Amino acid sequence: MRAVVYTETGPSSVLTLVERDVPEPGPGEVRVRLVRAGVNPTDWKFRAVFGPAFDEVAPGQDGAGVVDAVGAGVDDLAVGDRVWLLLAQHQRPYGTAVEQTVQPRERVHRLPDGASFDLGASLGVPAVTAHRALTAGDVDRLGPGTLEGRTVLVAGGAGAVGNAAIQLAVWSGATVVTTISSDEKARLARAAGAHHVVNYREQDVVAAVREIAPDGVDLVVEVAPAQNFAIDVEVVRDHGTVAFYANDGGDEASLPVRAAFANNLRLQGLILYTLTPEQVAAGAEDVTAAVAAGALRVGEEVGLPLHHHPLEDLAAAHDAVEAGTIGKVLVDVADA
């Protein structure tokens, strides 16, 4: 089978297309023939900053394809089932930059009928991160009505996680406010379903959000805490939550301590790799339900343009994500 791998830390040029033996699934494992793979910031950061944890790594946490073999003990998936993958390369040498990947059963999820492989490969890291952020407050699961009556502020609504957070929050009944930096990003955020859009380059964010939510928002999904914690403290309600999942804009953040404890603010950092198995499973189940309901989609029409690259051009896909391409970068592993 074809695979794209790296053996050393470095720029995207360390990625190499190779031929490898087709792996066989062991007990409790599933082999998936990939059609699409998703590329996330975590993929290029592990390659460029942290380096390989194994002698050889095929990157990629997300993907979608068809089951083509199952190991002993797997009786709820069968050859031919359409699936999406989550955390495929976490603590494993081979992720989704391969034609066939073997994964533990718990990382393989059914792709609902009618959902494209493009959508399946776009779920994973962005959607489950958004799910965890939205459940960091006073709800544990998402679904119709679970966020009814709540107002959610999504910082950076034009990004992949922001887009998923908007769609999942709207599906769950929340009023969604998002911050953006341009008219084009405002268009994308509205296409995703945001009810209110605030341009932080042109507007006073605190004043604009407080006009929409006079008592404050219930939850902030934050991508740039170093830049926004001071704003978040001013716009969140008493006993509200700020859930942050990235370090855009800087690695060090300053928090207005008195204001934060005065309104009993909850700060929740999050990353998928250290979630509990129960949290990951809940996220995957709710995301799959949202897909089945038609509430979680991808494409220009819902604010997430798709950018395709062939497997042999994975380096360009990594470079596109690192450069901040707006939308979702996908790798075409095989014909759909």
Automatic annotation (TrEMBL):
Span of domain Enoyl reductase (ER): 10-331
This protein's UniProt keywords: NADP
Keyword NADP part of the UniProt annotation: yes
A Pfam family the protein falls into: ADH_N
CDD domains reported for this sequence: zeta_crystallin
Name of the protein in question: NADPH:quinone reductase
